[in-house]
Amino acid sequence: MTEHPNHETQIAIEGFEQVDSLVSGVTVYAPKSKPQEGEKSKVYDCPNCGATTAYDISVGGIACEHCGYISPVKSKTLGKIADEFEFTLETISQAERGWGTRRQGLHCHVCGAELSLPQGVISTSCPYCASNQVNLTTSLEEFIQPRFLIPFKITIEQTHQLSKTWLGKGWFHPDELTASSVMRRFSGIYLPFWTFDANVTAHWKAQIGYQKTVRHYNASQKRWETRTKIEWRWENGTVPINIDDHLVTGSSSQHISHKILERIYPYQMKDLTAYHPDYLAGWQAQAYETTLTDAWDTGKQAIREAAREACYQDIPTSHVRNFSMTADFADESWRYILLPVYLAAYKFQDKTYQIMVNGQTGLVAGQKPVAWWKIWLAIAALLLPGLILGLIGLPLLLIGGAGILPIGAGIILFGIGSVLSIMLYNKVRQSEAK
Amino acid sequence: MVQQVTPLKIIEEGQRLWDSDRQPAGCTHCHRTFLAPDSQIDSSCPLCRIGHLEPQALRINPSEPERVLPFRIKTEHLRSMYTQFTSGVWIKSEDFTIENLLQRTQKIFWPLWLVDSDVEGQWQMEAGFDYQVESSKEYFQDDQWRSRKIVENRIRWEPRLGGINYHVDNVPVPALEEHQNRQQMTGAYGLENAGPFHLDQSNNASIEAPDLPPADAWPLAKPQVNKKLSQVCTEAAGAQHSQNFSINGKYQNLNWTQFLLPMYTSYYKDDEGTPQILVINGETGEIQGPRLASQKRGWRFAAIIGGIAAVLLLLALLGFLISPIFPPASILAVFSGIFGFTAGIGALLPAIWPSQWNRKNQSPVIIKRD
Q: Which among A37, A40, A41 is positioned nearest to A118, based on CA atoms?
């Protein structure tokens, strides 16, 4: 086949753009690629009065506090139909970069957090460690751009109310800790998350034990008796598992508690919206620190454990030995999304505590400082009755033997007190735990 | 839109072509037409083996064929092929012998059109791009997880469209009305092994003339041209696959030349004396044609064996009759009876087998044209 020497046919098709052709005489048009939003800068100034504008939850769009200007965000709620991406190196390398609007990076020299802040903010408290020792850095352009987010639904006022209620719960916190001191430090932040989908087919094989009652003749007792016996049989099975939107945080555990974060799950993915820079105007947003591959490794570990659990549930008895299984992953896909969280970090007696509020559902979780003197007092109150009864019973026992009852009651009360003390201790430790 | 260039001219009876002794000839029985050398005029038709070739006027492209696929199977290879072909046919007709097949073998070149065209227009398709995704298989044994990465190949389909101004060269398309049957008989050819035509390559071979004129062949040619264009557009788009290709264009400067494909034919006569044609692909050696068992000979065998059985049974009867006066005759009677009965049953086999074989071994046959 030879090429024709004539000029190439020129055509113009809407939605398509000419791309390189590898054969002379043939022109090729491909769908227009999406504009690289990361390269565009956008400054959030009010077109009416020139003041700085920001995303306002109550109006669901960009609003100006000064003149009342409102501009709704031009973005669609996609829910679970939001695009998912396959695990190809090509997809990752071609993923759009940047944040789509002019934002500036913030590096906290205390906890090492990388934050992205609206332009114009010169300094702020790090939401993770409450440190004011911060320096601005260049934008984090090497990151994949998030494609979807769930906008904030809970206002800062609602957050104050929710956190006040939450902080008010529990008697073992310091009286000096007032809700207002925390509330002043709440800031809304979009945290990075990876979501993963996969179809897993798990094949298991194990020896399953079935209890069986057998009758046998006891020669020494000269009678028939029954005993239970376990009969072991090799069995296998297949369990299909569908993993839908398995969440893995993209934040490093160095400056954000994953345990607390998991306690404000779940997020309702039906509110997933196409990413638009307007949502981030006036709000903080954190770029991911855990890469896609690292996050997938974490997600995969959790998914395969879920598969193992499903296999055990498939086994009809609790007697299992020599268990082995394979988990075949198929149709794996991922999304990079931003989820709304209110964070508060505060210092109490030189210790930093975090509180998080789910910006979509209002669920609150966090650390509360503990007034240890109250705890020790409570533990003492729990142990003392048993101890006192024991002390009373001991001389009575020496005198005439009537002390056995108080000693017995004392031991029981002491035991109960000890168990309750341990439970209380664990609970308050958890309250403080990161 | 198609701009036809008709290359056909009438060649008069007895007129020679290509500075050789080849002249147009037709079969008196099947009416297939050939460009036959003088030596084959008045000889039997190489395809139907019933009629004979007579000079006749023909409307044909008078220029030499453009390309030819040479015979890779030599005549000395044919004996082993025929031996293999005839093996398994237990009761053959007397004419169905390897020697007869060898003696009656003839070389034929049969034609395809090669179409060239300038194409100008707009095309669109779904272009398929290969890519790889990473998956994994996790193993749990002895309280430990092991992971194995698996790479899967997938195709990403994307719309592509554009313009084309291209010259398509040598697209092979049918030149015979019975092309489909012919291809079924010969099997596939490796067209990429073809070379330019030289007259001396066709010595002793009949050249079958096209009976499908370009105007009638164009509806068959267009999809082939478009298939070639889809390959060009796929390459232009840097894709590896394509689907749903369509083109809206002008096909101009159509040029029709011939492409010759090699085959052998031979035949044997069945019970009724009708020639059964065998076709051998001259490139691959694939052989097709009816492998008929002879029912007539089957009956004859059955009659002979049946006759022997009847004699043996008669002997047995005789033996039983004389056994009261001559007791040893009973032994002869028993053996004669057993052998006679066995032979009687065995006589059924040659009577039934040919029809069963012929029913089970049906193969494509060359179209018979009367």
A: A41
Same domain, B217 and B350: no
* Domain-terminating residue out of B262, B287, B312: B287
Segments forming the whole domain that contains residue B335: 296-360
Domain of residue A235 covers: 201-240
Asked whether the beta carbons of residue A330 and residue B118 sit closer than 8 angstroms, the reply is no
Mean pLDDT, 10 residues at a time, chain A of 434 residues: 41 79 93 61 74 82 86 80 75 49 58 62 53 42 72 89 80 69 74 92 95 88 88 95 93 82 91 86 80 88 94 92 94 91 81 87 87 87 88 80 81 92 85 68
* Measured distance CA(A45)–CA(A53) in Å, rounded: 6
Nearest to A26 among B135, B136, B164 (CB): B164
The residue-averaged pLDDT of B170-191 equals 91
pLDDT tens for A114-170 read 766 654 343 355 666 655 443 334 444 445 678 899 999 999 888 888 888 887 777
Residues A218 and A249 in one domain: no
> Average pLDDT of chain B?
89
DSSP 8-state code for residue B200: G
With contact defined as beta carbons under 8 Å apart, do B250 and B119 qualify? Answer: yes
Is the same domain home to B172 and B211? Answer: yes
Q: Which residue of chain B comes nearest to A30, CA vs CA?
A: B160
Q: Does B192 touch chain A (CB under 8 A)?
A: no
Q: Are A241 and A300 in contact (CB under 8 A)?
A: no
Strand partners for A135: A107
- Which residue among B261, B287, B313 closes a domain? B287
Cβ-based neighbour number of residue A114 at 10 Å: 18
Q: How far is CA A371 from CA A170, A175, A344, A382, A402, in A?
A: 11, 8, 20, 17, 41
ipTM: 0.72
Size of interface A-B (CB pairs under 8 A): 122
